[in-house]
What we know:
By secondary structure, chain A is mainly alpha-helical. Chain A is about 75% helix and about 0% strand.
Amino acid sequence: MDWQAIWLTARLAAIVSGILLVISLPLAHWIVFSRRRWTFLVESIVSLPLVLPPTVLGFYLLMAMGTRSPIGRVWSEWAGHPLAFTFEGLVVASLFYSLPFAVQPIATAFSQIDPTLREASATLGASTLRTFFRVVLPLSIEGVIAGVVLSFAHTVGEFGVVLMVGGNLPGVTRTVSIAIYDHVQALQYREATMTALVMLAFAFAVLLAVYGLRRRPLAAAPMA
Amino acid sequence: MTLAVHLAKRLSSGFALDVSFAAEPGVTILFGASGSGKTTILRCVAGLVRPDAGRIAIGDRALFNGDAGVDVPVQDRRIGYVFQQLALFPHMTVARNIGYGLAGLSPAEHQTRVAEVAESFRIAGLLDRRPGQISGGERQRTALARALVTNPAALLLDEPLSALDYAIQLHIMDDLQRWNAERRIPILYVTHSHREAFALGDRLIALEQGRILASGSPHDVLDHPAQAPLAEIAGFENVFGATVVARRDRTGTMQCVLTGSSTDLEVPLGVAPEGAAVQVAIRAGDILLADREPVGLSARNVLAGAVLDCSMHGSTVVATIEAGARFVVHLTPGGADSLGLKPGTRVWLVIKTYSCRVAAPAHARG
């Protein structure tokens, strides 16, 4: 079993889903509650990785990270090495790739909140921030958890983007998905089977958690 | 303090609101059919909808002034709002709901204020429950307590009691009136119920299609509608075109023939001369029914007719009766049973002279 790859993947997914939570809460809030007309544009951009082939996304990210692009140059000068084929590069790529999986469940949960609850909160003197933490977040906690879990799981499973941006450097960019692929290529079916089983168990546990949460009548309270 | 409202608002649906009024301390009823603009007025006062133009002020504090560019954000207006759906926070207990608007108090002070208002609205025993675990009347009381605990400068109520039965409504309004007796804030109360308007209001503003039709005491506005649309919205289910055929100054009555029929009614003497076209309005609940021709009555109008249709609406039986014109009559289920009402049943309508209201005809209004 490739514990190094499993540990690296878990670290990557934890960092990515953590950062995505921080990004997605305000982003979903803006998409759902803003009255601006071009929210659909942002929504489309956020959802792009859902329909874009991972290799295409990976290709563009690789180009952007190269020293010929302004972003890549700034990073290289700051960090002393290019972003591509590093763990940091993998984190950045995964953020883009998994963004819709965090934003969409959160935005869906936000949009299901009765709008008069937010209005009532405002008439009671609460700021948008207070309304968010006292009303919006508690009532959409299931969606938020689903967003974190799905973005974590999705980061664990990515393959095309990782291969394009990260390559296959053991301990640096070699994730579980890549490791399994490698084992198969090398005809090491025993190792591949073991690692794949770990992934299967993990995926099933994730779904149990997500669907189990939905069953809990957290905010079930009939209103007059 | 007085709540002064002058506002114009055009909605994307094409609906245009243009009203101007001042609400003194006490209950002011905003009365009108659905779609007359009542709720939009409340939303503008609360700051949830921005008027196109106008001024809204509480005392000398401006909440909105289109010319001066003043538009105080909702959360800084200090206007209590009880929504039609109440909008209680489902994930919080009654106590947390009530205390929601109390920011920056010490825990002890916070608790005292919540306990105080819960006591006034008789929900002190429910503080640990959630909105889903209490009755409709109790949710109503919680919503009122939550809006009032912050000592708002005015209170807006959007048909808050319409889902409750009448006894509970009166009880809750009693508590609200008692609470407001010391504080004397203006309360805008939106309703389309005639009964609530009479029971609760010091003053009534009747709205139709975004404009103020009339204002005054509920009795003045609703009982003497000078205008037919108001007669209709004020609960006169029967409104007929008619012609005055005889005036009897001595008895204080006049005789009218309903347009398109030979049916005539004795009505109270009005200003209309003989031959003038008028409208006669009669409430469905003011008409008596008999299953044989009544004799020895003081009521002057007895019309023979036949039941066209008869159905239950809540606890009221609504009968449509053809008696030269189509009359709508409201009865209790017991009353309908004892007459054996069904389509085709022959009945007599009994209408007192003073149950008939006379108004200028629709085309004569300005």
